[in-house]
Write a structure and sequence with these properties.
three-stranded antiparallel sheet; 62% strand; 3 strands
């Protein structure tokens, strides 16, 4: 598996991301039908592009303002 990505923060809590992944699964055994001793071998290669938007919750909010008299 290999991949690359980029993320861009366009607002204080928001960001957009673009990712690419290549997954090579070589020599996968697949059962044919209901009989478990019949297998075929296949190569499976996947390419995925993902586009997303993320929101980051503020887990450490600023201290509350306390007024004094």
């Amino acid at each position: 598996m290999t991949g690359a990505g980029i993320e861009w923060a366009f607002a204080p809590s928001w960001s957009a991301k673009l990712e690419y992944q290549y997954i090579a699964l070589n020599n996968i055994g697949v059962a044919n039908g209901l009989v478990a001793d019949q297998f075929s071998v296949h190569d499976a290669n996947f390419q995925m592009v993902t586009l997303g938007i993320d929101y980051r919750f503020n887990l450490n909010p600023p201290a509350p303002v306390v007024s004094r008299y």
